[in-house]
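pipeline/complex-builder :: batch 7 item 3
reading input block
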Amino acid sequence: MRGRDEELVRQALAAWRQSMETEQAPPELEVRLLAAYRQRRRPPWWKRPRVYGAVAASLFMWAAGWTLSVMRQPLPRLAGYPPVQASLPPERQPAALPAERPAAALAAARTLAKRALQRETPRPPAPMPVREEVATDFIPVRAGGAFEYGRLIRVRVPRPALAHFGLPFDEDRAAESLDADLLVGEDGLIRAVRFVQP
Amino acid sequence: MAGGEEEAFTAFYRRWQAPIYRFALQMSGDRQLAEEVTQDVFLELIRGVGRFDAARGAVRSWLFGAARHQTARRMRAERRYAAIEDGAEGDTAEPGLAAAGALGDLARDQLRESVRQAVLSLPAHYREAVVLCDLQEVSYEEAARVLECAVGTVRSRLSRARALLAGKLRAYAASGV
């Protein structure tokens, strides 16, 4: 392009540029952009503290309701041990309770029972609902000789069995039964018994 | 402004809205589109002000760059971005504008309209160079940053664009537009 043509093109462009110097965006655009700017400064809804509060309150209410509903449900009946029906042959039935129980035998029975319990629970038992039980002392039973270890078996026995071991019982409830823990030696013979009242 | 002061944003907008609006208007010839482009550029600034890196160039380069992309996007959507074929019009065989006295024959309003039409009919990459360097009076170096090309490329595009404009103006003068 010739130099003079170029100069004239520049002049034409300058004329257009000058004519456009007053051109600018409409004023309402500034209003819209300012609104957008203010909107940007507001955190999005999921970042607002009020929303956090509402969510936390909802979660708390839900958790509280769930806990209450669980607490109102009846607790399942969990026996400490499965019921076992003890049936001993006649020759192994415990002898009649002696008139007097030597304290030494009673202490030995307690020690054996404790040992048996320790051996019986090599692992910590699973947490279970605590249930208060009232139990008699272990009553030694003359059956078998010395034994190294034993196990504890819970059985359900008729209430008159209490009288068999010299314990009082209500005759009006003779038809009922109650729990009893039997300390059984390694030879299968019962060494001691205690009665449990749930 | 990154701190969020509203007054700072208002001052910034008032400082830069007119050049951005005029750039989009000169590129497209459409006031509605120019307004939308201006809005988009400043919205982009509002939403992503952290992305502006002062070390990479001046604010004006960033704004023109954003305006360029927004204009191209919108014009492409309206199928107005493509213009005449590059090199479709030569200037070497034609008699010069001055020789023909073409510019002198055009009234001032006619001249503005002829230039406007001539610029709008340029291919987009030539038009960008003319609008930035001749109408917005941006330096070649800054234009190169905006157009994401070398300075030499800007110079050659500008030279070619002016030659095409001369040919177009000659044609308008001859047809009496």
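note: Confidence is low (pLDDT under 50) at residues 83-96 of chain B.
queue -> next item
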